[in-house]
Amino acid sequence: MEYQRLFESGISTAAAQAWRAQGKKALGVICCHVPEELFYAADILPVRMRATDCVDNAEAQAWMSSFSCSFARGILQYWLAGPYKDLDGIVTSDGCMQASRVYDNAAHINARERTGKYIRQIDVPRKTSKRAYPFYKEELQILISELEKLSGSKVTDEKLKEAAAKFNEARKLIARIYALRKEKHPVISGADCLRLTLSATNMPIDEYVALLKAFLADARNRTPITDYRARLMVIGSGLDDPQYLQLVESKGALVVQDALCFGARGFNEPLEIDDGDVLGSIARYYLDRLVCPRMMDKHFEMDDYIIDACKQWQVDGILYQRMQYCEIWGGEAVYFQDRLKDAGIPMLTVEREEQLANAGQLGIRVEAFVEMVEKED
Amino acid sequence: MADVRDLEELVLKGEMSITEFACTKIDGSLERMRQKHPEMLWTMEVQKFMWDNYRDAHKNGKKLVFYGGSVPTEIIAAFDCFGFYMDVIPFRLSTNPALTAKYIDEAEKYVAPTMCGLDKTELGAWLSGAYGIKPDLFVYNTVPCDSSRLAYPAMEKLMNVPSFSFDNPFHRDERGAAYLADQIEDFIAFMEEHTGHKLDWDKLKFYMENANRNFELQKKCADLRKHKPCPLPGRLLVLNGTTNAIACYPEMGDLLQSELETGQMMLELGMGACPDEKYRVAMLQNMIWGAAGIMDWMEREYNAVAVMDAFGFQGDIMYEHMDDRRDCLKVMGKKLQNNPMIHGASGPSAYHLDLVDKIFQNYDPNVSMFLGHVGCKHTWASAKMVSDMVQEKYGLPTLYLDLDAIDGRYKTNDEIKAQLSEYFETVVMK
Predict the structure, then answer these.
(1) Do B146 and A108 make contact, defined as CB atoms within 8 angstroms?
(2) ipTM value
(3) Which domain holds residue A234?
(4) In CATH, what number is assigned to the domain containing residue A99?
(5) With an 8 Å Cβ cutoff, are B112 and A331 in contact?
(6) Both A63 and A41 in a single domain?
(7) Nearest Cβ partner of A104 from B110, B167, B349?
(8) Residue A103 neighbours by CB distance under 10 Å
(9) What is the C-alpha to C-alpha distance for residues B194 and B189, in angstroms, rounded to an integer?
């Protein structure tokens, strides 16, 4: 089945190579506060950067030190000497200081080596306000001007709307797939669902939408998963390693929902365009939508989302994984710990590195947690 | 006067607040100084001014405005409120590792151990109910770092008082300054609402003039350090961190004036902080509040004086048109973007590189050190860019040494000294 490509979660450079072979640009994107619609409208392929399977980030560690998160180091490593080395540049937002430092180091190395690649960090406000929306919209306008120069392609409202429509289609299809996971016996595991969302970074949006449709058309033919003991929701730092969830699920858990930027949160709700202010609609959407705790005024909204999702997906417990040195998610418990207790939702907190290195310990802890939260039918 | 350990014990038992502890400790230090080093009293008097005002703000009929990160303190002062810079808690407690340990452990019930010790101490102390003072208002900014971005909104929730937050853009350009100026207008409205007073521009001018004077004095002190031998000790660089707390008050100017006069006197006498200065150390990061004595030790043991650090306490952004409201607010915006130390390293790394480059151009250091606070992960992630530049442009290697500015359990002073000794003896003195 062609849609099997959705489950190939390793980083593929094929789409970027094909795109560039047509004389067009492909840019790496870090963090989900960079609207990918803008890139398509400028005829540029956005490649959301990740660090999946990065087992050696020595060169990046030399730049960013061992006190940086291994996800960010992995991205820089892949940019310096990995699947991203041939991209035409990087656009990042200050999602967190680690993402910013990927930008800083990449820009520094770029300048030293005179590669001429396009490296840009956009300013994304950390709170929503009447001041923040126009500021961010102007920032996006500046980015558009630069993308236009880079691609030689004019960005119009029509092109932006067209791109937004494609992303909305993907967002709606992903929402349908997540809805399948509400079932008592879902037809897709947590690990496979993460593979499926990650694969969006491997191909153009049109292709992705077509494969999602094919998957959904065939979903009813898939074998329901019945052999699990507890339904979990995974929350926390950017997780781009399906093997991590595979290990969790091998211990009797089934991951049915998440609050991950590479999962549900990265896709989110559809973007509604106001024809009178297309770019303003995009700016407002990207600031308003709930993605990760980098937005300082959305902590409580995130708590509400998690608690509500637990109810809707009949979650037995939460797996809160925090990447070492990820401060954005690392202390979020200060907001939700008591609320989860009040809501009667058990939580297991685990530290993680990009490379799955403590599988044995994680397995034992998940197994114990599953035993604690599983319910008799 | 009770022994510090007895005071610590009282705080640990919850029988004394941090504010009372700080005030009592400062009074004790002043008393000892009066007897042994009356000429150095000025270094402590500013601490007394700060902490007594925190403690007595309500008694003096002033609202207490807690703040985190880089905020326009001139406006807080102009509304007759007293600003409480929350970082003074970890600064003050950093020489009492038993206390910081207690509050850090408290915070780590919720937050990751890798979070910055400053924020953990502030959060843990609040969760322990140990401050001894209560805010009327809370203001914070989205700088300096991810740790504070987590801690400040959490404190906002816990404090449950009217609050205001600034959104500080990553890039430090005119557009960002204008964005901040707009937010400062909102902040003025917030202060007017919660104090019941309209902004008195003359009062604001008074504090802006003070800020200008203080920055000018700070620049003059920094300039003195260019001389050989360096007339001012490295310890005073570490203490610069405190100036963010009261940068617009005349008392800060008094401290800097005394510092300047001391430095000028030393210069006239041809004396340096080291009797026989051999090494001039550039500090690429310098957060050793819990171990400031190390500066004295380096001067004694190795004739090595820290001539400048990369926090940017070299005064540059000044108010020019005091009657032009928009212009003043834009200057405030620029100050928020470039506030020494607070934002010194959390914006684009290019600014950090520039600061370090200026140190090497102006202060002629022959030793380069990065005494990096482990909580400053973003600064660590810039370190190679900075040290490469120092190596390539100035031919000097850089010592990287990790420490925790607040949590003494991470590395003791003796360990830090041992590592510095090894560096001096195996690299610098070879």
Answers:
(1) no
(2) 0.94
(3) 159-373
(4) 3.40.50.11890
(5) yes
(6) yes
(7) B349
(8) 24
(9) 9
